[in-house]
Amino acid sequence: MERVQLTNDLTFSRFIHGLWRLSDWNQSKEETLKLIEEVLETGITTFDHADIYGSYTCEDLFGEALALKPSLREKMEIVTKCGIVLPSTNRPEHKTHHYNTSKKHIMESAENSLTSLKTDYIDVLLIHRPDPFMDPEQTAEAFNQLHKEGKVRHFGVSNFKSHQFSMLQSYLDFPLITNQIELSPYVLENFQDGTIDHALQNRIPPMAWSPLAGGEIFSSDDEKAARLRSTLEKIRAEKDADGIDQIIYAWLLNHPSRIMPIIGSGKLDRIRTAAAAQDIHLNHDQWFEILQSSMGHDVP
Ligand code: NAP
């Protein structure tokens, strides 16, 4: 598995495993441990979390599995996020769905994540969404303190547009190392609005969430999904690939910005199939055929 150099002391596996849906998989902690070990065997060592996943339960489920074999911690990189406040029976004090990127909230959220994940450090902490009420001086203070205390190694953002990324960066003494954004052949917004250009300009590899559009490409009966399925199937046959999911991943991997797709499935066969997509090369014709079938028209 290829590795992506993010800083001089941190690399990610090119594919990342996402734990957003972990609580839906209804696994025992032994089963989650087995999945973590099998994912590591594929060469995928980077795991993506957020405090809010599973209504504040997924980090605990992962941490309980990790506690069965703590030696695995050194073999992986853990990414988690903070900044969204979600009303939940697990957080009865939360009244409204909102964002909070204050120093106090970030510090408390990071401490909760450390406790839940049963780890002493987070490799990368992301601000989950741009916050219209952000005081970047406070966000920077929280980052500095968490870094000084050895609790978080590096920081990044998620769902930030280029101007939001640059604004927060201007308050920090160290670089934000990634922007986790929605990228798939089905959702082109970040390819079209300058977000990917900003990542290229700053040499910051983006993490791609919902690379399969959360399954929509397979299941939706809208015209775009139908067009994409037929183009992807044509190219799958040309490449003799195992499934159209591999062509979707290859479309992302072949982009020069060093996109790191986050696999959302808990099924090992799907994770292995995804990992094998790193060997598929798409030519310009194939890459643009997929782009155009999503757009529904030719490029200008
Ligand atoms: P995804 O890979 O686009 O979607 C996963 C869904 O697609 C699952 O329901 C999966 O079903 C289904 N699927 C996968 N392969 C399939 C196939 N061959 N045929 C039919 N269905 C298939 O990814 P995602 O789960 O939406 O997102 C991935 C990760 O990104 C999350 O775990 C999370 O870590 C991160 N994320 C971040 C944000 C953010 O705002 N930063 C937002 C959303 C997600 P099965 O489970 O049955 O395989």
From TrEMBL:
GO terms for molecular function: oxidoreductase activity. Gene3D superfamilies: NADP-dependent oxidoreductase domain. CDD domains: AKR_BsYcsN_EcYdhF-like (cd19092). Keywords: NADP, Oxidoreductase. Coiled coil: none annotated. InterPro entries: AKR_Detox_Biosynth, NAD(P)_OxRdtase_dom_sf, NADP_OxRdtase_dom. The keyword Magnesium does not apply. One of its GO terms (cellular component) is cytosol. Residues 16-290 form the NADP-dependent oxidoreductase domain. It holds the Pfam family Aldo_ket_red. Belongs to the aldo/keto reductase family. Aldo/keto reductase 2 subfamily. This is Aldo/keto reductase family oxidoreductase. It comes from Rossellomorea vietnamensis.
